[in-house]
Automatic annotation (TrEMBL):
One of its GO terms (cellular component) is nucleus. Gene3D superfamilies: Homeodomain-like. The lineage of its organism: Eukaryota, Viridiplantae, Streptophyta, Embryophyta, Tracheophyta. Residues 1-20, 156-187, 409-428 are annotated as: Disordered. Residues 167-182 have a biased composition (Low complexity). Keywords: Activator, DNA-binding, Nucleus, Repeat, Transcription, Transcription regulation. Residues 14-66, 67-117 form the Myb-like domain. It comes from Brassica napus. PROSITE patterns: HTH_MYB, MYB_LIKE. The gene is BnaA04g18810D. This is BnaA04g18810D protein.
DNA sequence: AATCGCGACAACCGCCTTTGT
DNA sequence: TACAAAGGCGGTTGTCGCGAT
């Protein structure tokens, strides 16, 4: 985490400064020096102690290995949980994370995280457990937004994370906007296949426009969705009815997973990308380890901006390339409007992603009622978790889900309010696509 | 027994920020 | 205000040990 600075390797060697692992003798000298003179003024260590190490190397050695109250050994489960949560909240701010973990160094945390990331990447798992996504934007004076494309079955070993840092004091609450005031966030570029953290700003409203086969009459719900299923119901039912229904629709094999830990189901069994947070006023682009920085702007089709990698690992090159390819083709290359006017998505991941987002949104809107009824809450969690694994063709389930929430359910920010059907001379596919891309904010 | 892959860890590099003059 | 030095940070690389093949 430290070192170099103004002193090049050649210069150090020319000055007779040592590199490489520290010996116990050097450690003893440094420890004794700090004991006598205290921390700081590290460049004076060499002069005053005879230690042939540059100041930064001394500081690093002291901070990471010699200073008192350091905790050694593996991270505890609690510490791991904290790290994951902090990373979801802060990104690669190792020093800040370390400040939350007494006795741990930024280097330790960074090493842990990078190792973990690689491991999960190989396993095709998302970086964050599902519940962590809700922590993505905290209450700090700054918040960061990350977008991820997690590995999935179609794109194994591809992982993308772009982090946007808000330098203003914009609060999370002020960054979201209601559906009625459709003020878009500051532009961001997003991979269209990357899903959006529920309740945060907007995402592609690929389901909303010009569909009428299934339309919720409730004005407060105020949006329409279309399903290929021929059945429809405008009856509202309560959440537990939904849960009953969802449970009934789960196949027995899936239902047998009831004993599986809920959180692990949420995080590790997702088969589609389902995390990321959107934010406003993005000003700084940061890229964690193994990720690709934006260095030059490339404008692709559909006004989506993506940046070319520079000096990154091959992994990120691949990720960016995939992202670009998806952007060029557009998610709507798979969208078709059938003769019946139903929007069908050939890429089921898109639909599943939408469904899961909606589930998250609706459930979070009713978190309090769930929490007041632990059994119901547990059931809901179970159903939600298992939803990710059930047959995504089951549109009845989603329909019932939508109908099941009370009329006071707020409209997700990312669902466009219901609009009257367009005139017949409007190409529904074109409308859909333009609507979608219009709502893709950009960065860069 | 040799090799390979992987995880854990330590250390360095280069850049940026802060501080002092 | 400008400059240089010191300190801090994130990214990257190298090494070592261990288990699997």
């Amino acid at each position: 985490m430290d070192g170099g600075g103004e002193t090049s390797t050649a210069a150090k060697e020319a000055r007779g400064l040592k590199k490489g692992p520290w010996t116990t003798t050097e450690d003893a000298i440094l420890t004794e020096y700090v004991r006598k003179r205290g921390e700081g003024n590290w460049n004076a260590v060499q002069k005053n102690s005879g230690l042939l190490r540059c100041g930064k190397s001394c500081r690093l050695r002291w901070a990471n290995h010699l200073r008192p109250n350091l905790r050694k050994g593996s991270f505890t489960p609690d510490e791991e949980k904290i790290i994951i949560e902090l990373h979801a909240k802060l990104g690669n701010k190792w020093a800040r994370m370390a400040s939350q973990l007494p006795g741990r160094t930024d280097n330790e945390i960074k090493n842990y995280w990078n190792t973990r990331m690689k491991r999960r990447q190989r396993a095709g798992l998302p970086l964050y457990p599902h519940e962590i996504q809700h922590l993505g934007i905290g209450n700090d004076d700054e918040f960061e937004i990350r977008c991820f494309q997690f590995p999935n079955q179609d794109h194994p070993n591809h992982q993308n994370m772009i982090q946007y840092t808000n330098s203003s004091n914009t609060s999370p609450s002020s960054s979201s906007f209601s559906s009625s005031s459709s003020q878009p966030p500051k532009e961001l570029c997003l991979d269209p296949l990357i899903s959006t953290n529920p309740g945060l700003n907007q995402i592609p409203n690929m389901f909303s426009p010009y569909n009428n086969s299934f339309e919720n009459d409730n004005k407060q719900f105020g949006f329409s969705l279309t399903f290929s299923s021929s059945s429809s119901s405008n009856e509202l039912c309560n959440p537990d009815q939904l849960l009953e229904l969802m449970s009934e629709n789960l196949d027995t094999n899936v239902a047998s997973k009831k004993d599986i830990d809920v959180l692990s189901l949420m995080g590790d069994h997702e088969t589609i990308p389902s995390y990321f947070s959107l934010g406003l006023d993005t000003t700084v682009l940061e890229l964690p380890s193994n990720q690709t920085p934006c260095t030059s702007n490339i404008m692709h089709d559909n006004n989506v901006h993506l940046d070319s990698p520079a000096g990154n690992s091959g992994l990120l090159d691949a990720l960016l390339e995939e992202s670009r390819a998806l952007s060029r083709g557009g998610i709507f290359k798979d969208a078709r409007v059938s003769s019946s006017g139903l929007c069908e998505f050939q890429d089921k991941r898109v639909k599943m992603d939408f469904e899961n987002r909606l589930i998250d949104h609706l459930s979070s809107s009713h978190q309090s009622s769930f929490e007041s009824n632990s059994n119901l809450y547990e059931k809901h969690n179970e159903a939600t978790m298992l939803k990710a694994t059930v047959d995504d063709d089951d549109d009845d389930m989603l329909k019932s889900l939508l109908n099941s929430f009370p009329s006071t359910t707020p409209l997700p920010d990312w669902v466009e309010p219901h609009k009257p059907p367009p005139s017949s001379n409007v190409d529904p596919v074109a409308s859909l696509g333009s609507s979608y891309w219009r709502n893709i904010p950009r960065i860069c």
